[in-house]
Amino acid sequence: MRQLTSLDTQFLALETSRQTGHVGGLAILDPSTAPGGKVDLADMSRLMEERLPLLPPLRSRLVEVPFGLDYPYWVDDEDFDLDFHVRELALPAPGNREQLAEQVARIMGRPLDRARPLWEMYLIHGVERRLTALLTKVHHAVIDGLSGAEIMSILLDLEPEGRELPEPAPRDTDGAPSDVEMLARGLLGVPRYPLRILRSLPSALPNLDETAFNTLPGAGLVSRAAGRLQRMAGGEGEVVERLSLRPPRTSFNGRVSPHRRFVFGQLSLDEVKAVKSEHGYTVNDVVVAICAGAVRRWLVEHGELPPDPLVAQIPVSVRTEEEVGTYGNRIVLMHAPLFTNVEDPTERLHRTHEALRVMKERHRALPADLLRDANHFIPPAVFSRAARATFALSSRAPGRPSWNLVISNVPGPQFPLYCAGARLEANYPVSVITDGMGLNITVMSYRGHMDFGIVADRDQMPDVWQLIDWLGESLEELKPAAANDDG
Questions:
Q1: Which of 255, 423, 448, 467 could form a disulfide with 30 if both were Cys (CB 3.0 to 4.6 A apart)?
Q2: What residues pair up with 123 in beta bridges, in sequence order?
Q3: Residue 44 pairs with which residues in a beta bridge?
Q4: Nearest residue to 96 (alpha-carbon basis) of 129, 136, 121
Q5: Closest CA to 100 of 138, 123, 136, 133
Q6: What is the pLDDT of residue 176?
Q7: What residues have CB less than 8 Å from 70, skipping those under 6 apart?
Q8: 67 dihedral zone (left: phi>0; alpha: psi -120 to 50; beta)
């Protein structure tokens, strides 16, 4: 039995009838390399049955503490039913990308069943060019980006024939505790609340403006004052340049609906690297700059371009080598300006590089457990309501949002991988949007290309497919002159 952290619990708390807390990936598979040239439900069920002993989180269900006295626990599901979690469906002809994206949006718009382990897998047949898609759907309370990659590394192989698997860890077979036991655990945890707060104060207060609580009145003032006091007292506070950012409000920063749009597309990693080398920057600098270019184009087309830059939330992993295989969430949420207000593409890239340099320095100065520590100021009994209220504040005019959108760049392997013998052709991320932040752009690199998955609120951005084309145009604008001449 393992207790959720406050950050894991926050992803559960954010769920309402309109917003969900799960993430996923849309893998495009070429079944021609698999035995018999196909992958069906029986193949995926066999694969999952074989690999599940190495993936304890996928066999664990959620158990709440009575009256919300403490954070919930994961316990082994004695009634685990693999057939419930692994499913298949087929697209109608012609099975094009728009049909596939719409099906993904519908599936991802439905909440997971909290009475069962919080994941589902869908094998989708009928994809154009005789391909097959595999959609995974896992709650963010179970995984973050890196721990999600760890799960995929267990499900994917280097060869179509598979591999010899390591010995799994012994299963927890103690069974789920009774309500009385859970109540006792919750009562025993009550005296720990003040201790949690006291331990969290030194790291959380000076950095309160780096959390979702930055929308609360006085958060910035408290953060600056606590930082000064910490330095005067000889603490470990480090003076690092801070970007003064006030996110403008756009149409995708309101209250989200229950409906989603998902779109996906690819860019060449070599072309991104050519731009990076031309300017001496990083791949991430280029990715963020082309996202700024695409979003700028959308804002211009809709007559919404603000005079100030947008503010992007950029999740950064703080998982150490010792924490590999522990799953859950080990991240901090950094913020950086997205220079949609800069017309010149090269100048936009330069400003992006400088802003991300400051963000990296700020990240090095932040405590790894900042988000967990900040959450400790809220007692578990009211945690869910407080978390939802905080995000709701950022979605209501005339207040300002905490961030405008999410941009996340996840490096991936540059060699072929296989799932049940089928070659992985692409792996498009499918992430989360919330009240106040109705646009998420996540990209994963794989085998020489960058796979973009974009999630938006259907009512706020019905035409989000255009962003995929504009990402390509933004990259084209930044290509070295010789490359453009050759084209």
A1: 423
A2: 88, 134
A3: none
A4: 129
A5: 133
A6: 73
A7: 3, 185, 186, 189, 190, 380
A8: left
pLDDT of res. 372: 52
- Please give the structure tokens belonging to residue 396: 């209501």
| Residue 58 pLDDT > 90 | yes
CATH of 2-162+179-187, one of 3.30.830.10, 3.30.559.10, 1.20.1290.10, 3.40.50.300: 3.30.559.10
- Is a pLDDT exceeding 60 seen at residue 97? yes
β-pair partners for 3: 73
In 3-state terms the chain splits into helix, strand, coil percentages (rounded to 5) of 45, 20, 35
Among 370, 455, 366, 364, which Cα is nearest to 407's? 455
Judge whether residue 195 has pLDDT over 80: no
Six token digits for residue 313: 């939330």
Task: Report which of residues 475 and 149 the model is more confident about.
Answer: 475
Q: What is the mean pLDDT of residues 228-242?
A: 48
Are 404 and 434 contacting, i.e. CB atoms less than 8 angstroms apart? no
Catalytic residues: 140
Write out the two tokens for 346. Answer: 């090269």
Per the prediction, the chain carries an average pLDDT of 84
Token pair, residue 480, equals: 């070295």
Q: Answer whether CATH 3.30.559.30 is correct for domain 246-412+429-486.
A: yes
Other beta carbons within 10 Å of 322:
7
Residue 483 burial class via C-beta count within 10 angstroms: exposed 0-12, middle 13-18, buried 19 and up: middle
Encoding tokens for residue 26? 């849309």
> Where is average pLDDT lowest: 126-140, 227-241, 282-296?
227-241
For the chain, give every domain's residue range: 2-162+179-187, 246-412+429-486
pLDDT of residue 365: 60
User: What are the structure tokens assigned to 147, written together?
Assistant: 């721990």
Give the three-state DSSP class for 246.
coil
